[in-house]
Design a protein that fits this description.
The protein is mainly α. 87% of the residues lie in helices and 0% in strands.
Length: 160
């Protein structure tokens, strides 16, 4: 694989890792697509084994990610109403401050919902922190897996 294509694959992988942190961006899918692109061009046993390993890891992480939030969020009192507020906050934040505003909008939506439900600032903020810890675990699991795949890819590229 020539250097420009290798750099483009690296860029896709970096965008995927960054996408894990941005709500609504399919970061894991971008990381997998970058490895797939590289494996299709490289056509070596090592490239195919990395693709298979990355696919398995990222699929397992998706299952784990889907299992973590519902169990943890139910324990902190999350409701459908909170999800609606968080979604509307994310959408408003994304529109008002493109891409970057989605995260503060998400947190603001949860805070508003909890402030209306609980009444006091301290209690609402404690609830927001608990919800963010529950969701943060999911994001961190996905981020770690994507970083492992990217690290393995970098190792393969440098060694080969």
């Amino acid at each position: 694989m020539d250097l420009p294509q290798l750099l483009l694959v690296g860029l896709v992988l970096l965008l995927g890792v960054a996408g894990v942190l941005v709500p609504g961006v399919p970061g894991t899918l971008l990381v997998w697509a970058g490895v797939l692109w590289w494996a299709l061009r490289e056509r070596s046993a090592a490239a195919w084994s990395l693709l298979v390993s990355a696919t398995a890891l990222l699929l397992v992480v998706q299952v784990v990610k889907w299992q973590l939030p519902p169990r943890r969020l139910q324990g902190v009192g999350a409701s459908r109403r909170m999800a609606v507020y968080a979604g509307v906050g994310t959408l408003l934040g994304f529109v008002l401050l493109p891409v970057v505003g989605a995260v503060p909008g998400f947190v603001g939506g949860i805070y508003l919902c909890e402030r209306m439900r609980l009444g006091a600032h301290g209690e609402a903020w404690a609830s927001v922190r608990a919800v963010m810890r529950a969701v943060g675990t999911s994001v961190l699991v996905e981020l770690l897996a994507c970083l492992m795949v990217v690290g393995a890819w970098v190792g393969m590229v440098l060694s080969g």
